[in-house]
User: Fold this.
Amino acid sequence: MKRFILSGALVLFVLVASMMIFQPLISSGAEEVTKNMAASPLLADRHATKKIDCQGCHDPGPPKAVSFDRCFKCHQSYKHVASLTEDLAVNPHESHFGEIECLECHKAHKKSGLYCNKCHEFKMDVP
Ligand code: HEC
Ligand code: HEC
Ligand code: HEC
Ligand code: HEC
Assistant:
């Protein structure tokens, strides 16, 4: 039990330490990313152009927040999505972070953003 707590504390320490080291990247990368994304329409609108209406993502009735499993109704699986972007220099769908919720990056009704850039400075637009 004690070892369990100790290793938990170590993981936390490493996480906090790496965030501190990468802190300067966050501010220097942010501006460029927002500028690129300003040009792209929001994801819900992009779905509308593909004939996916509100209820493609929302249950009938007043719309509530959408769980990320919902995305797999049409986008199959994480593996499948990763295969679509496997030719990119850095695959946003396959990384040391594992299977991050889609909504950490893709937002439906506001600007999307690249979760990875909390620490990195990848120049990628997120639809
Ligand atoms: C691609 C899937 C998708 C489509 C299509 C979509 N939404 Fe959403 N909607 C979401 C997600 C995901 C959220 C959670 C917040 C976010 O990520 O923007 C949300 C949140 C909302 C919310 C806020 C609900 C809450 O309680 O937080 C409303 C209202 C809403 N959507 C209305 C609509 C309407 C109206 C349409 C059709 C014009 C629509 N949505 C189409 C995915 C979608
Ligand atoms: C009812 C089916 C459906 C659901 C549910 C759905 N999508 Fe889609 N999505 C599509 C279709 C169809 C397209 C257009 C063809 C394609 O790229 O596969 C698309 C395209 C996309 C694109 C590419 C947009 C572009 O213009 O490049 C992203 C990103 C995306 N979806 C994310 C999501 C996320 C995140 C969710 C969950 C909140 C979601 N989708 C839920 C059907 C759906
Ligand atoms: C770490 C951020 C991140 C997460 C998490 C993420 N995506 Fe993406 N996604 C991106 C980026 C960045 C692109 C654009 C890649 C490019 O430049 O072509 C993209 C592109 C897409 C596309 C279009 C692919 C194509 O080229 O046709 C789809 C569909 C998509 N994502 C669906 C999803 C779904 C579904 C999930 C959850 C299972 C998800 N994404 C999770 C960052 C993310
Ligand atoms: C909490 C901080 C953090 C987040 C968030 C993060 N990474 Fe990393 N990443 C690191 C650290 C630390 C390393 C190892 C040091 C290095 O080599 O830069 C690394 C290394 C990498 C590497 C190999 C080295 C390189 O830069 O080529 C890739 C590729 C990578 N990450 C991709 C991603 C992707 C994709 C995401 C988002 C899905 C992501 N990372 C999110 C901290 C993070």
Notes: The chain has five helices and no strands. The domain at 21-118 is CATH 1.10.1130.10 (Flavocytochrome C3; Chain A, domain 2).
